[in-house]
Amino acid sequence: MFQVDGRAVVQLGAEDVEALRKLVERCHAFMTLVYGELEPDAAEGILESLPPGKTLEDKFALGLYTDGKKELIGLLDAVRGFPEQDEWIIGLLMIDPDHRRAGLGARFVGAFERWVRGQGAAGIRLVVQEQNPDALRFWQRQGFEVTGMTLQTLPRRQNMIQLLHKPLAP
What we know:
Blueprint: E1 2-4, E2 7-11, H1 17-26, H2 28-35, H3 42-48, E3 59-65, E4 72-80, E5 87-95, H4 104-118, E6 123-129, H5 133-141, E7 145-153, E8 158-167
Helix pairs in contact: 1-3
């Protein structure tokens, strides 16, 4: 796949659920901000959730472990071919709170961009909840631009979300 800081990024699967659950718990503030509360099956939901018309073959739950695969410290969840065939959508980026503010998220996203460009992607899309201005600033620093706003309806809350896009040069 690709590397970040010399560590291999791996496709997460059923064998990684416990490590993902621990990362989600460490990121509980974000999960509560977006979803209203931390669901007990949030880790499984991350591995299984898909946009309409997509299959698990299109899903990439990409994990970044510490050296020796001791602890999952990052997740980038993406789906290829959505909303357009030549685009990818990032559903979630989570970085362990103890590893934030050191550029790890930006390096993870940069490595992901290079990888999907090599897969033929022409652009990447994502959404940011209005109540998360720090995330909006992060994504704008990565070159994403706001293209609109809409209402997101989740089981426990509704969010106004900003739609972001970044075209990728060939």
